[in-house]
Design brief:
- Helices cover 31% and strands 20% of the residues.
- With 369 residues, the protein is of the alpha+beta class.
- Among the domains are: 103 residues, Ku70, Chain: A, Domain 2 (Beta Barrel), CATH 2.40.290.10; 91 residues.
- The protein has a 7-stranded mixed barrel with strand order 1-2-8-11-10-9-7. A two-stranded antiparallel sheet has the order 3-4.
- Strand 10 and strand 11 form a beta hairpin.
Length: 369
C-alpha cells in the first residue's frame, strides 16, 4: 500500500523553495489493551468526574488550567490559547547547516520522511544530493499544530528525513545524575573491557535482527485463547543480581567469545559405500534446518530463521543435548508447522507466511519441543 502523506509544506533555504510532503517514518508496534467490564465484556468509556461536585462533567463544561502553585490554577479558554499560537505557516526555513556528528541524539524526538510535492522533484533531488555531498544536516524552525518547534533535516538513501527535536531547556542536565565518577577503574579492567567490545563489533547495524519478544509471547497467547486452548501461565524468570569480580567476569566473557569462534573439529567420514550420506550423529547445519522448515510448506524470513537456529544451538550447548535429540526437536517442530499449514482457520485470509510468533526463537522456546 502506498505511503499516505499526513501534511505538506515547503523547505526554504536562501532563495530556493521546495514543495514537500510529510510522511510518518515510524510508529510504536507495542501491544495495546482495552479495559472491559468483567461481567459482560463490554469496552469501557472514560468519563470526567468532578470530586468536589461529585458528578460526571461533560467535555463542553471543561476549561484548561495551569497550576502555578500547589492546587492553584489560572484558567484559559480556547480562544485565549488560539491567540497565542504561531501564525500558520508550512514553510521549513533552513537557518544553518552543521555536521550530523555534532548533534547529540538526545535531542531527537520523532522522525518523519519527506517526499517531493508536485513540481518540487528537481529542487528536492538537488538539496538531497548537495547535503549528501557536503555531509551536513540542516536546522530549522517549523510550526506544527500551532506550536513552533526545532527540526533537523538530513539526507538519507537519496531522500530527505525530518527529525523533530527537543529544545535545550527540555533536556535534563546530565550533571544531575550520579555517573560513578568516584569509582577507580584499573588499567587491566579497562583493557579487557575494550577487548570485549572489539570482539562484539559489527560493521553495520541490522535492526531486523532484533525483535519484540514480549509482543511475540502475547500474540502467541492470544492465538491460544482464540483457539480455545488451555493456557498455562509461566512464572517470569527473574535474574538474581549478584556481586561479581569484574576482572573475572571480563575474562570469562572473552573466553566465551573465543570458544564460539573456534572451528569445529573435522568429522570422521561415515563408513560404507554411501559416503555422501551424513551421519545421524552429525551436527545439524543451518542449511538442513532451513530445509526442514521449508518442508512444512510455510516460509520464514532469513532473520527469524537464523535466530531460531541460534536458539536451538544455544539450548544444545546449555543442556548438552546429543545431535539426535536436536534433530528430534526439529522433526517435532516440522510436524507442528505442518498442522498449522493444514488448518486455514489459524491464518484466515492472511498470506500463509510464517510469523515470528509461530516458531521458537530462543532456547527457552525450544525447550517445549
Amino acid at each position: 500500500m502506498a505511503a499516505r502523506a499526513i501534511s505538506s509544506g515547503t523547505i526554504s533555504f536562501g532563495l530556493v523553495s521546495i514543495p514537500i510532503k510529510l510522511y510518518t517514518a515510524a510508529s510504536s508496534g507495542g501491544i495495546a489493551f482495552n479495559f472491559l467490564h468483567n461481567r459482560c465484556g463490554a469496552r469501557m468509556k472514560q468519563q470526567q468526574f468532578c470530586p468536589v461536585c461529585e458528578e460526571v462533567v461533560q467535555r463542553s463544561d471543561l476549561v484548561r488550567g495551569y497550576e502555578f502553585a500547589k492546587n492553584q490554577y489560572v484558567r484559559f479558554d480556547n480562544d485565549e490559547l488560539k491567540a497565542l499560537e504561531e501564525e500558520t505557516s508550512r514553510v521549513i526555513e533552513l537557518e544553518e547547516f552543521v555536521p550530523l556528528e555534532k548533534v547529540d541524539p538526545v535531542y531527537f524526538e520523532k522522525t518523519y520522511y519527506l517526499g517531493p510535492d508536485k513540481g518540487g522533484e528537481k529542487a528536492y533531488r538537488l538539496l538531497a544530493d548537495a547535503m549528501t555531498e557536503s555531509n551536513r544536516v540542516g536546522l530549522a524552525k517549523y510550526v506544527m499544530r500551532g506550536k513552533q518547534g526545532l527540526v533537523l533535516i538530513r539526507a538519507v538513501q537519496g531522500g530527505l528525513m525530518l527529525h523533530s527535536m527537543y529544545y535545550a531547556g527540555e533536556v535534563r542536565d546530565f550533571d544531575d545524575i550520579d555517573r560513578g565518577q568516584t569509582v577507580e577503574i584499573k588499567d587491566g579492567e579497562l583493557k579487557l573491557a575494550v577487548r570485549l567490545i572489539n570482539e562484539l563489533v559489527r560493521k553495520e547495524f541490522h535492526p531486523e535482527n532484533y525483535h519484540d519478544e514480549y509482543k511475540a509471547r502475547v500474540l502467541r497467547l492470544v492465538d491460544q485463547k482464540v483457539e480455545g486452548k488451555e493456557v498455562t501461565a509461566l512464572e517470569p524468570q527473574v535474574r538474581q543480581s549478584q556481586v561479581v569480580d569484574l576482572m573475572e567476569a571480563l575474562k570469562a566473557s572473552l573466553e566465551q567469545q573465543d570458544g564460539e569462534r573456534k572451528p569445529e573439529a573435522p568429522r570422521a567420514r561415515p563408513a560404507g559405500p554411501r559416503e555422501a550420506e551424513v551421519s545421524v550423529e552429525a551436527e545439524l547445519t543451518l542449511e538442513e534446518f532451513q530445509t526442514a522448515v521449508s518442508e512444512s510448506g510455510l516460509e520464514i524470513g532469513a532473520a527469524e530463521l537464523r535466530r531460531s537456529y541460534n536458539g536451538l544451538t544455544s539450548l544444545k550447548k546449555r543442556k548438552k543435548l546429543a545431535a539426535a535429540d536436536v534433530r528430534g526437536k526439529v522433526v517435532n517442530l516440522r510436524k507442528d508447522l505442518e498442522v498449522i499449514r493444514s488448518d486455514p482457520e489459524l491464518f484466515g485470509n492472511a498470506p500463509k507466511k510464517l510469523k515470528a510468533a509461530r516458531i521458537p526463537l530462543t532456547a527457552r522456546d525450544w525447550e517445549r519441543y
